[in-house]
Amino acid sequence: AQSVTQLDSHVSVSEGTPVLLRCNYSSSYSPSLFWYVQHPNKGLQLLLKYTSAATLVKGINGFEAEFKKSETSFHLTKPSAHMSDAAEYFCVVSSGGYQKVTFGTGTKLQVIP
Amino acid sequence: GAVVSQHPSWVICKSGTSVKIECRSLDFQATTMFWYRQFPKQSLMLMATSNEGSKATYEQGVEKDKFLINHASLTLSTLTVTSAHPEDSSFYICSAITGVSYNEQFFGPGTRLTVL
Lengths: 113, 116
What we know:
Order of helices and strands of chain A: EEEEEEEEEEEE
Largest interface: A-B, 22 and 21 residues
Oligomer: heterodimer
Helix content of chain B: under 10%
Distance between the termini of chain A: 41 Å
Largest sheet of chain B: 7 strands, mixed
Strand content of chain B: over 45%
């Protein structure tokens, strides 16, 4: 079984300040973890993924995430928010060679100018 | 690589009509494709898993006679919403798996369906 919890449904930051979007997962097997971004009325864009290699994963647009097994977390961070980062972010887990993925409920990021 | 397209990107139809949505893997062969539904301000909900050459596997609560899925080739899966009603209005997103990375799905851009 697998599940993912995004702890915040809405995060608001000022432009130029750090971003932290939290994600915790549960899995009976070694998981693969992903962060996707979705802009309004658009499809999903992969930001980054963890697949059992380096625990600190760097993605596109300055985002990165750290896989912490002891904390079962995979939080997404960015040092400095940009207005274009305003969107919905989904944490996704897949495990056990199981083709199905499980989506978190999403976090809406608001960037204040 | 690993690009998935959907057509149409948006469609408006009258209640009672049927609508077909196509999902194509453009640069790889996808033995498995998935169909998701997303209501406004909600997460994606898996509707069905589509395997090439076999019947789709539907998630609990999804009407298979309402949402017909055909995966006739390794690059194309179609979702047909039959006798559409306003409550079927939603954002439909497909995804596909390559033969290399089974845990990663590549998502299409989505199709916005509005039923009047």
